Recover the amino acids of this structure.
């Protein structure tokens, strides 16, 4: 289970002069009781660290796209998370508290991994349906997972039928000089698992029971889509990514589109991809170009259909000092006032970054507990957010416990009365007024303050 890093978007020099790199989102969790426990522990080690892009290991376009649905300043609906309950269905009562909920592929894995053949997509769709049915107010944006380069055949028939049909071999990157079982040990990972072999390159990242479960005619694994194939591209866009299991389905309006192609290989792939496929630097350039061209087309189409993708989110500013998990301030983690002010000025100008991008504020001081210094991070959110912005959690692994939810997320602050501004030239103090609150961030002290006449938001209709 790899966790290749993605570049940090934290400002250089914010913490001890060094921006810490972020680990990529893990490929998933292995099946089997012992393997599952080990994989879950490893997954926690590979979770994104504060400073990583909301896109994770997915493709983030240089083209800025905004949702076409009306913006909302409802605090309760300006929250997001990516739940995953490995042992069964996720409790939709938790999801109803959030404004954007995107389900991970590993959700309900204990249930769908025992099918023959396995069919992750069916249960992922069913989980989304459960939330849509429970959300009588229609206020929750519901999303599901797709991988844009790794072809997981445990995902179900939509991948299995193409992978197991020799007519579609050109849709998948192949092992070099593969002759089936006779070539098995020529590759790492090997081409065969027990009696099943495939000459389509595949790895064992996130594999179920070591690849021994029923995923069709081929070993369970992570195969690689070949985006250079024009006929594949049509199927990928119009059947795999956009379908009645995703954003064409009533109530589903978001997608988490994982992983990407780089010149060095495939994000979250393990083993010797370049050596075992024989792909040259020129081949990788072509694969990367074709992949990114297809993804631009996918992203445009998603927005045209009135939906959105998690990978279209950008980081909100992060100028908080570093805290320990108990909420006390780390004396070695202060942010330089000049760097803090430089960042906030970017977000406070009239044509600001916040006005031009959809933002995610998921770099909580304690990544798994947003209640730790939650008010301080919320002040930064209210100070700098634009029309499309969410605060909450990105992928934090599969768990049965509910995520801690700060009480401040369920308060009505009204609407902003304008952008934030600096109180004086070089003061390093920034303020913003809302109709029911005012917020202030002092870069000199590294602290925020809220003055609020806000009241708890009305109860949800569920």
């Amino acid at each position: 289970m790899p966790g290749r890093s993605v570049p940090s978007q934290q400002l250089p020099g914010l913490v001890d002069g060094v921006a810490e790199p972020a680990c990529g989102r893990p490929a998933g969790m292995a099946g089997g009781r012992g393997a599952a426990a080990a994989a879950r522990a490893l997954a926690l080690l590979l979770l994104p660290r504060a400073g990583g892009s909301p896109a994770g290991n997915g493709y983030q376009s240089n083209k800025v796209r905004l949702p076409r649905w009306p913006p909302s300043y409802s605090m309760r609906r300006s929250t997001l998370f990516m739940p995953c309950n490995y042992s069964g269905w996720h409790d939709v009562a938790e999801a109803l508290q959030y404004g954007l909920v995107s389900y991970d592929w590993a959700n309900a894995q204990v249930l769908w991994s025992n099918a023959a053949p396995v069919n992750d997509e069916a249960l992922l769709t069913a989980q989304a349906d459960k939330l849509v049915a429970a959300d009588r107010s229609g206020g929750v944006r519901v999303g599901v997972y797709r991988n844009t380069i790794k072809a997981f055949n445990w995902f179900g028939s939509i991948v299995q039928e193409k992978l197991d049909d020799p007519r579609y071999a050109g849709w998948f990157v192949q092992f070099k000089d593969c002759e089936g079982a006779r070539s098995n040990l020529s590759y790492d990972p090997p081409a065969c698992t027990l009696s099943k072999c495939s000459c389509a390159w595949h790895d064992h990242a996130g594999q179920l029971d070591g690849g021994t479960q029923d995923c069709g005619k081929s070993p369970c694994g992570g195969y690689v889509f070949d985006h250079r194939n024009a006929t594949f591209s049509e199927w990928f866009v119009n059947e795999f990514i956009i379908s009645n299991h995703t954003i064409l389905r009533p109530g589903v309006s978001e997608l988490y589109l994982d992983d990407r192609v780089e010149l060095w290989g495939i994000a979250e792939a393990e083993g010797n991809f370049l050596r075992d496929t024989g792909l040259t630097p020129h081949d990788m350039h072509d694969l990367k170009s074709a992949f990114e061209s297809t993804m631009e087309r996918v992203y445009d189409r998603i927005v045209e259909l009135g939906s959105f993708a998690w990978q279209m989110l950008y980081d909100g500013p992060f100028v908080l000092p570093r805290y320990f998990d108990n909420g006390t301030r780390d004396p070695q983690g202060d942010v330089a006032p000049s760097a803090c002010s430089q960042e906030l000025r970017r977000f406070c100008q009239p044509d600001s970054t916040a006005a031009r991008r959809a933002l995610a504020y998921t770099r909580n001081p304690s990544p798994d507990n947003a209640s730790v210094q939650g008010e301080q991070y919320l002040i930064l959110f209210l100070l700098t957010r634009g029309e499309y912005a969410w605060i909450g959690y990105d992928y934090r692994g599969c768990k049965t416990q509910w995520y801690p939810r700060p009480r401040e997320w369920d308060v009505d602050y009204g609407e902003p009365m304008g952008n934030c501004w600096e109180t004086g030239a070089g003061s390093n103090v920034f303020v913003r007024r809302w109709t029911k609150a005012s917020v202030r961030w002092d870069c000199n002290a590294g602290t925020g303050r809220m003055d609020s006449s806000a009241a708890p938001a009305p109860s949800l209709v569920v």
In short: The first strand starts at residue 79 and ends at 81.
